[in-house]
């Protein structure tokens, strides 16, 4: 649209040659999700496949973008919609909202990425005071017509006119109470007619206008409402949670209505081609007779399992099974399907690649490989590191004594324990105070999203595997149990009554098992995940369900290891962590933090070093530390024998090894008041004051310590060299790498390296062992990244310390800012995700890329890695693959995630060789 920059946005769109804002279902395909949204693209694809899809058309995401940018629809949109509506009316043989036999349509959102329940839908558009009579005559069913009309007013009033939805719900409940019935299907035509009158009064009072009787006005306002729903608070919150870009916009699908509320031979349902909770093949889904689609996903009426449709309507059931097989083979994946049966006629309303739990994702990926539908590279794209991390979470101990109080539908697996809360606001409030909570509702709706995010798990007394709670929880990886009917949830009194009469008050601890659907009172202990036991070497594939999962994970990890180019190392500081990391698949240690070796009993030696007044005292302290350091490295090199071990020399400020200044001041003051000896405490206090810095993370630390404290770094280098020599003499294969931290200029590195080379030569001469120790540096300061070409002249490897690099690039103190304003930044959309969690590609990432290119230009064989927390972050691993690093390093428990994501990154590129 840049050709007409001086025109309003809406007119720009209208004047660009070839811009098309509306597509008939016969014109699109599944590959046009950017333009038609997921729902529109898949409706078009099913139409192309010859499946029974009600006719309709899609308004593109481009039209939405113009509307959101300018506040006006594109000038050409109304005429395009009119042309497609005319064609639809001709095809259906009736006009929208005509009095005798009205055409009715639905207006539904459809973004590129599935956002279940986050945006708006309006059904039965075209009904009015006159056309409802015609619909009743045409259908031969007064109750159906008035039920459809009350649904339109209710949805339109809430969605389009902004009326509080609870006002309609309260009126509906009052009508059921007056009739002495419990479900809305028991209301008769006369009751529904009265309800329509009541609903119209609510609209008039609350919206300040009458419910529109013009069908085209209904449709146009509904289209605008769907556009507007892209930027509702709940939609923006969901996008932030799922990291969906905010500039995509939504398409709008206008589809001729088919009716599932025409009686017992009609109904609506949701089906999955495989179980989205487990991945097992079979008949999975929910069906609800005499209902419209929103009744199923809203969870307001409990459904029957899809398998029961066979006895209710075998013809439709058989046709549905055949269509499900067609769709799964066509999409080569689990498909989530919405359908309606209108008086025995099956109609397909939507299909999409279905959301699934982490366990299901791994099982399905391997199943599809075995069926020949996808290859190993594609299987890797069907799972994520985040899903693997979920599978490594603990589960409930089956041997524990428990008090089960209910059982619902296992909607999303996991073991969740927390205090029961009964509304979203409380869930968020308590969670921010550090409490773990379980959100308990009769059913959830999109307004509960922030509470669902805050909670450890979600428990509902209504709904099934396709209810709002289940679908959203699976997408977020949250534990969820739905449809626990025996639990009486009273949200107004903030309590839940369980069988036997026991009352769970708000704040009481409960536990829910999303794998079994069981609900327990109190806190149930947890045990390690079978996937962790597999990585630890304590579990193997077998016949039971857990073993099936382990086998699927094993196979996917094998795919990833064959594909990946990146090595995966561990951040480990002792032999125990190193051995665990090795069991998890680590190919070395990318970061050994030697400062962790100076704690405990050794703190006194460090204090003596800091307090030393003479060179002899300093040498004595270093001499005492040397054998301890050496033994540390002997154990570490033994645990990682044959694999590289990168040892970072002492990094933090020395005052961190001294007592807290406040505590020490109190001790000195008390000793003085009691006239007790306190010479040592006084010297310590003087040292603390001497070393005190306003901003210690930017002060005397890292390489600066090595240059200012004589002998400190050379002692550490000697310990490394002697340990390596001892291991070689014992027929081991130590592969030590010495890393100098916080270098900002090549001169710092040159001085330290010269001293280190001299010490290594001395150890080689004394032991007669040839050592091949490489020396490199951490790139964790912007200046180091900008002068990487110079630094590479003195470095054999770079390891990017992205934690500090992020701090110094952003000017953030991580310990302070995450607690002070990061929440606000995330809520306002300044961050999509914390830059300490996922690499900031534009800022920090640009410096990493620049340093990689400059470093390798100077030294083509320069080894490159990363050892910050980003090394185990799935999205960041892809970035490090793209810029050409050799390895990532992360904590032991994140190694499997990094291995998987390294494989996924390589499978997305071409010509990647495994190292």
UniProtKB/TrEMBL annotation:
PANTHER family: PHOSPHOENOLPYRUVATE DIKINASE-RELATED, PYRUVATE, PHOSPHATE DIKINASE 1, CHLOROPLASTIC. Residues 551-903 form the PEP-utilising enzyme C-terminal domain. Keywords: ATP-binding, Kinase, Magnesium, Metal-binding, Nucleotide-binding, Pyruvate, Transferase. It catalyses: pyruvate + phosphate + ATP = phosphoenolpyruvate + AMP + diphosphate + H(+). The keyword Transport does not apply. Its cofactor is Mg(2+). Its EC number is 2.7.9.1. This is Pyruvate, phosphate dikinase. Residues 435-517 form the PEP-utilising enzyme mobile domain. Belongs to the PEP-utilizing enzyme family. Gene3D superfamilies: 1.20.80.30, ATP-grasp fold, A domain, ATP-grasp fold, B domain, Phosphoenolpyruvate-binding domains, Phosphohistidine domain, Pyruvate Phosphate Dikinase, domain 2. Signal peptide: none annotated. Residues 74-302, 308-359 form the Pyruvate phosphate dikinase AMP/ATP-binding domain. It holds the Pfam family PPDK_N.
């Amino acid at each position: 649209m840049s050709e007409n920059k001086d025109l309003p946005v809406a007119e720009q769109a209208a004047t660009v040659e070839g811009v098309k804002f509306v597509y008939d279902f016969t014109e699109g395909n599944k590959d046009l999700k950017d333009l038609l949204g997921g729902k529109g693209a898949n409706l078009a694809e099913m139409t192309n496949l010859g499946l029974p899809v009600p006719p309709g058309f899609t308004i593109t995401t481009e039209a939405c973008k113009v509307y959101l940018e300018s506040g006006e629809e594109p000038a050409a949109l109304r005429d395009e919609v009119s042309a497609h509506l005319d064609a639809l009316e001709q095809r259906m043989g009736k006009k929208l909202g005509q009095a005798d036999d009205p055409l009715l349509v639905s207006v539904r959102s459809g973004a590129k990425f599935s956002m279940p329940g986050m945006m708006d839908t309006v059904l039965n558009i075209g009904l009015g005071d006159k056309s409802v009579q015609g619909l009743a005559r045409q259908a031969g069913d007064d109750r159906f017509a008035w039920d459809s009309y009350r649904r339109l007013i209710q949805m339109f009033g809430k969605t389009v006119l902004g009326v509080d939805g609870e006002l309609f719900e309260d009126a509906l409940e009052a009508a059921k109470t007056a009739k002495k019935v419990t479900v809305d299907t028991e209301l008769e035509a006369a009751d529904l007619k009265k309800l329509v009158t009541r609903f119209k009064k609510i609209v008039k009072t609350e919206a300040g206008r009458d419910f529109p009787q013009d069908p085209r006005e209904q449709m146009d306002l509904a289209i605008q409402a769907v556009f507007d729903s892209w930027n509702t608070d709940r939609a923006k919150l969901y996008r932030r949670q799922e990291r969906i870009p905010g500039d995509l916009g939504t398409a709008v699908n206008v589809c001729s209505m088919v009716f599932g509320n025409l009686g017992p031979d009609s109904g609506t349902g949701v089906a999955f081609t495989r179980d989205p909770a487990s991945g097992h093949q079979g008949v999975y889904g929910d069906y609800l007779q005499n209902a419209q689609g929103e009744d199923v996903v809203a969870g307001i009426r409990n459904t029957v399992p899809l398998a029961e449709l066979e006895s209710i309507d075998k013809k439709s059931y058989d046709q549905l099974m055949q269509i499900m097989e067609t769709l799964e083979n066509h999409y080569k994946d689990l498909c989530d399907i919405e359908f309606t049966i209108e008086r025995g006629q099956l109609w397909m309303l939507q299909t999409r690649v279905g959301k699934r739990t982490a366990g299901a994702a791994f099982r399905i990926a391997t199943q599809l490989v075995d069926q020949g539908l996808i290859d190993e590279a594609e299987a890797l794209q069907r799972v994520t590191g985040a899903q693997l991390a979920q599978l490594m979470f603990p589960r409930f101990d089956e041997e524990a004594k428990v008090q089960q109080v209910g059982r619902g539908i296992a909607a999303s697996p996991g073991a969740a324990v927390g205090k029961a809360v009964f509304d979203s606001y409380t869930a968020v409030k308590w969670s921010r105070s550090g409490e773990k909570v379980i959100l308990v509702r009769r059913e959830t709706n999109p307004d509960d999203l922030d509470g669902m995010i805050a909670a450890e798990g979600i428990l509902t007394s209504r709904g099934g595997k396709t209810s709002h709670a289940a679908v959203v929880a699976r997408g977020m990886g949250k534990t969820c149990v739905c449809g626990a009917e025996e639990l009486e949830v009273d949200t107004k009194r903030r309590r839940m009554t369980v069988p036997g009469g026991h009352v769970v008050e708000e704040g009481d601890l409960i536990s829910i098992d999303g794998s079994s659907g069981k609900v327990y009172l109190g806190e149930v202990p947890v045990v390690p995940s079978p996937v962790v036991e597999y990585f630890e070497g304590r579990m193997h594939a077998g016949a039971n369900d857990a073993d099936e999962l382990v086998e699927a994970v094993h196979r996917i990890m094998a795919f990833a290891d064959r594909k990946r180019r990146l090595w995966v190392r561990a951040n480990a500081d002792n032999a125990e962590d190193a051995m665990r990391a090795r069991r998890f698949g680590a190919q070395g240690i990318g970061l050994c933090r030697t400062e962790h070796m100076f704690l405990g009993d050794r703190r006194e030696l460090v204090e003596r070093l800091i307090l030393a007044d003479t060179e002899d005292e300093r040498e004595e302290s270093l001499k005492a530390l040397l054998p301890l350091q050496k033994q540390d490295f002997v154990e570490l090199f033994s645990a990682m024998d044959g694999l590289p071990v990168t040892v970072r020399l002492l990094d933090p400020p020395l005052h961190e090894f001294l007592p807290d200044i406040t505590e020490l001041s109190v001790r000195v003051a008390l000793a003085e008041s009691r006239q007790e000896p306190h010479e040592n405490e006084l010297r310590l206090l003087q040292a603390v004051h001497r070393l005190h810095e306003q901003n210690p993370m930017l002060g005397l630390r890292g390489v600066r310590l090595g240059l200012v404290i004589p002998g400190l770094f050379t002692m550490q280098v000697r310990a490394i060299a002697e340990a390596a020599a001892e291991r070689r003499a014992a027929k081991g294969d130590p592969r030590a790498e010495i890393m100098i931290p916080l270098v900002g200029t090549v001169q710092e590195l040159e001085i330290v390296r010269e001293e280190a080379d001299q010490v290594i030569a001395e150890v080689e001469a004394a032991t007669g062992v040839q050592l091949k120790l490489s020396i490199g540096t951490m790139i964790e300061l912007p200046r180091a990244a900008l002068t990487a070409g110079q630094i590479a002249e003195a470095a054999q490897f770079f390891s990017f310390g992205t934690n500090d690099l992020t701090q110094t690039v952003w000017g953030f103190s991580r310990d302070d800012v995450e607690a002070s304003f990061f929440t606000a930044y995330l809520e306002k959309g300044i961050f999509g995700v914390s830059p300490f969690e996922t690499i900031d590609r534009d800022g920090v990432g640009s410096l990493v890329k620049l340093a990689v290119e400059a470093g390798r230009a100077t030294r083509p064989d320069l080894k490159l890695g990363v050892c910050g927390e980003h090394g185990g972050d799935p999205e960041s691993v892809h970035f490090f693959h793209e810029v050409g690093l050799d390895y990532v390093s992360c904590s032991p428990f994140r190694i499997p995630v990094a291995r998987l994501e390294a494989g996924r990154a390589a499978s997305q590129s071409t010509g990647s060789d495994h190292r």
